[in-house]
Amino acid sequence: MPPQGDQCVYCQLIDNPQQLMIIGETENFYAWLEVQPRAKGHTQIVPKEHKESIMDYTPQEYDEAMSLVREVIVKAKKGLGADGASVTINIDEAGGQMLDHAYISVFPRFEEDENAGTPTGAIFQHREELADKLEELQGQMDSVDVEFGQPVEPHPESQKYREEQEQTEQTDTEEETQEKEKEENIEPKHQGKSFEWK
Ligand SMILES: [Zn+2]
Questions:
Q1: Of the candidates 195, 8, 196, which has an alpha carbon nearest to the alpha carbon of residue 101?
Q2: Which residues, 6 or more positions from 124, have their beta carbon under 8 angstroms from its beta carbon?
Q3: How far is the CA of 127 from the centre of ligand 1 (A)?
Q4: Where are the domains of the chain?
Q5: How many Å lie between the centroid of ligand 1 and the Cα of residue 69?
Q6: What's phi and psi for 103, nearest 5 deg?
Q7: Fold classification of 5-119 (topology level)
Q8: Taking the model in full, what pTM does it have?
Q9: Cα 54 to ligand 1 centroid, rounded to whole Å
């Protein structure tokens, strides 16, 4: 895959935007209809500047791209009568990224389609053996420090939070009591409707 923007398929298209079936645009992104559609209204949200991966987006670009994703979904629902939508982000070759230029795909979903109700994550089969390893996996992932955009306080249920609490245990007991109260008052995570995987 060419590393530079010069030969990049998307960069070539962006240089000649009259070729594009644009349905939305922000300062730094286009939303255009995929020329080899896999769904009615299949749309790609693409940065105008060559970026190899959405991992290279700034926090502001994430905001901009995801707002455009939302706009496209509204257009699909109101303009095409879509009953739902799936948004996919494939990262790196192993993750199914098909081009060396970042993109987010929106697939409008329709009740009459054969695949209606099937989540895009259904390509992953249920792997029961992994359920026994969740603590180990949590440790391996939660311990990684990631700095990006605004610093986010660790979630009260995370290992990092517990470690930080242990470190500051003796500093301010009153504050800690309040934190514990807060922790106890946390609402259950999954309150929405739950759908069965098909
Ligand atoms: Zn490019």
A1: 8
A2: none
A3: 36
A4: 5-119, 130-184
A5: 19
A6: -160, 155
A7: HIT family, subunit A (3.30.428)
A8: 0.77
A9: 12
